[in-house]
Amino acid sequence: MELPVTRYHPDPVGTGSVEEKPDQPCLCCNRICGYVYTGPAYSEKFHYLSGCICIWCVADGSAAKQFGAEFTDTDALAELSEAIVSEVATRTPGFVAWQQERWLTCCKDAAAYLGRAGAAELKGKFAGALPALKAWIEEEYGLKGRDLDAFVAELDKDAGAIAYVFRCLHCAKYLAYTDEL
Fold first, then answer.
1. What angle separates helix 130-141 from helix 145-153, to the nearest 10 degrees?
2. How many helices (H) and strands (E) in the chain?
3. In this structure, are residues 77 and 105 in contact, taking their beta carbons and an 8 Å threshold?
4. What is the pTM of this model?
5. Given 3-state DSSP classes, what are the helix, strand and coil percentages for the chain, each rounded to the nearest 5?
6. Nearest 10 degrees: CA dihedral of 141, 144, 146, 151?
7. Given pLDDT bands bounded at 50, 70 and 90, which one contains residue 180?
8. Which has the higher per-residue pLDDT, 69 or 98?
9. What is the maximum alpha-carbon separation in the chain?
10. Three-state DSSP class for 137?
11. How far is residue 181's CA from residue 177's CA, in Å, rounded to a whole number?
12. What is the pLDDT of residues 82-106, one digit of tens each?
């Protein structure tokens, strides 16, 4: 079965928000689909949804509807249209962050989440995001020069301070932020 495509999180398996679980039934549709959503799930009544629902039920909105759930914090999306906020919150896999996750925006739309990055990834597959990340760190924390470079060199996608990388769906500009110092 081919995985559903979500506009704002194009590779949820690659980012770790969806994992292969060949024997795990979905709490929403009761099917064994082979993949489950492992990112955050916010629901007043159901606090155990992560790892228990399939990506198809996230992508089509049925999990959000059935469990009154959202899959990302939408505070950063407040300036966007209700339709975009709804799509990100209820039909897009979220991602786990050390602090509260933030969904970045550009061109009056939510950006696509590409994944976590450390220093190695910022020199490799996410090299295009490094200027955006440095600008964000400089503006947010006031780090410059060697202090900024030292902070970026210590980023690790698996521990400590992590960068979260996005890309605008319209202008293709990279966006990025890191957890608080």
1. 120
2. 7, 8
3. yes
4. 0.94
5. 30, 20, 50
6. 30
7. low
8. 69
9. 54
10. helix
11. 12
12. 999 999 999 999 999 988 899 999 9
Alpha carbon 109 to its chain's center: 15
Kindly state the tokens that stand for 2.
Answer: 């081919």
Residue 101's contacts (CB-CB under 8 Å, 6 or more residues apart) are 40, 72, 73, 94, 95, 164
Q: Which phi and psi angles does 86 have, rounded to 5°?
A: -65, -45
> What burial class does residue 94 get, using C-beta atoms within 10 Å of its C-beta: 0-12 exposed, 13-18 middle, 19+ buried?
buried
Residue 66 near residue 41 (C-beta atoms within 8 A): no
How far apart (Å, rounded) are the C-alpha atoms in residues 110 and 118? 23
Assign 155 a pLDDT band (cuts: 50, 70, 90). Answer: very high
Instruction: Quote the distance between the C-alpha of residue 174 and its chain's center.
Output: 14
Residue carrying the six token digits 């006031």: 142
Q: In percent, how much of the chain has pLDDT > 70?
A: 99
Closest residue by Cα to residue 16 from 108, 113, 106, 136: 113
